[in-house]
Amino acid sequence: MTTYYEKIPFVWEEPKPVIPVPQRLIFRSLNDMSVEDFTAAVSCAMSSSLDRSDQKAVRELGADKAASEFIVQASKDFDYEPQWWQLGYDSTGELVGFIQPVLYRGCGKDNLEEGTIYYIGVVPQQRGKRYIYDLLCQATYLLQKIGVWRVFCDTDVLNTPMIRAFQDVGYQQFSSPWKRPL
User: Where is the signal peptide (predicted)?
Assistant: First the structure.
């Protein structure tokens, strides 16, 4: 059994023009819903994630508990405002996915912050429609509005839809993949 997985780091460095966000999705923030609704969306996406660390957490804890602990950990480790965490819905009102942009603590530079997208996901029934691109654009746009000097993210080397989205949105691969313990 593998005891590690590999992540590819990506970076978005400012200044860049404000990213255009496709208009296929309607976004609602954590201000407009309960934490339980948001957690349910994370649980749904996490339950069939391509990220091996998510798969391990779901195996060990179950999807609901893994999602709940993931959200609690974000609150402890990063700064964010409730309006930044959003669910995306299609034009029929069906849930598509979620975004969790956050700021690193203590990583400011020249009156700007360093951000990351703590978690992003598309629910299984909406996959294959390139919605991850729309979600990533929205998360990046929000971080640009907040004022970041860079957005630093990573994804599992097996998550080809996320890798493609990072590339298509304009993120650059920061380095070769790094190993993380499972």
Answer: none
